[in-house]
Amino acid sequence: MTWKTARRSFYYDGAPEPEDPVLTAGKVALLVIDVQNVYLDRPDPATLTGDDLSRYHAWTPFHERMHGTVIPSIQRLLAAFRGRGLDVLYARIAALRHDGRDRSLSQKKPGWNNLLLPKDEAPSQIVAAIAPEGDEIVVTKTTDSALTGTNLRLVLANLGITHVICCGIFTDQCVASTVRSLADESFDVIVAEDACAAGTLELHDRELEIMNMIYCSVMSTDEVIGYLPG
Prior knowledge:
single chain; 6 strands; six-stranded parallel sheet; about 230 residues; globular; 6 helices
């Protein structure tokens, strides 16, 4: 089974196989979404008890996937794009004001998305292992979608980009929101599945199945690199 037949949802059962993407230098970009310190930092479990310790262990598979699979895959994508002179862009969640009043409502509601990440503080920075280099563009957002709350659509259009390779976290939240926004703006989107993670592997796999073939093509990092020009 290849990317052309895998991860088929109910809607695409029996649909024809998609054509190979034609990725052209100057028209394809890599977008790394929300791989920030706040999501990779962990407390010392020896300091935790009760529900806090249970949540620590519940998140362990995510951290194992991030360090063992996702970050190495993003590093390979970065090396492939940079080595070919192709555009690399980043998106990150960060508040422009210290009190976070500029955040969207979804980032103010109680619960998981209730984040206050001032733009200049360490938790909001992109993790060092995949940090931007040179003049690579970083957009700062207070929304899930990297297009809705930034000028990213305009930037991509000005760069002449038609195809966007997406990776990062979380598959079922900011990655999915960005993919849908890109698709609605008529960008051709590919998601590198082993360069993404959700809170659980079940959520990751389910979201990829939902998005595949309508909002994006879902491929492995190896498959993406195989289509890159040059």
